[in-house]
Amino acid sequence: QLQLVESGGGLVQPGGSLRLSCAASGFTLDYYAIGWFRHAPGKEREGVSRISSSGGNTNYADSVKGRFTIARDRAKNTVYLQMNSLKPEDTAVYYCAAVRTFTVRALPNYSEYNYWGQGTQVTVSS
Fold first, then answer.
1. Are 58 and 51 in contact (CB under 8 A)?
2. Going by DSSP bridges, is the β-strand pair 18-25/3-7 parallel, antiparallel, or unpaired?
3. What is the number of other CB atoms lying within 10 angstroms of the CB of residue 76?
């Protein structure tokens, strides 16, 4: 069974940093693009960042560009989202999701991701 597990969320002050992890079990992430999403109360779910199966192609939402970095560690079968300079508006439940791809640089649209984790809460507050 394909399973994704997020971790690393928590409470952080504005300007602080967190690193989220998305670990896979039951399958290798080598053939999957990974996306990070967030869902804040009263708002629609938002695609935050994507990374291709090779790791060579990435994309960020304008709201996080320059502050967040996505990366993958093949040895650990894990994808990370490093979040710096956090703002209160970054507060949300963060999810990772996967989609099978067949070219190493493919970066599917956010709507195509079909394997989801359970989410991890990120709260940015003083």
1. yes
2. antiparallel
3. 12
Residue at 56: amino acid letter: G
b/e for 21-47, b at 16 or more Cβ within 10 A? bbbbeebebeebbbbbbbeeeeeeeeb
CA 32 to chain CA centroid, nearest Å: 13
pLDDT by residue (tens digit) across 85-113?
A: 999 999 999 999 999 999 999 999 999 99
**Tokens (6 digits) for 36:** 């990070």
- CA dihedral (46, 64, 99, 21) in degrees, to 10, reads -110
Q: Please work out, in degrees rounded to the nearest 5, the angle formed at the alpha carbon of residue 94 by the alpha carbons of 57 and 51.
A: 5
Contact 93, 121 (CB under 8 A): yes
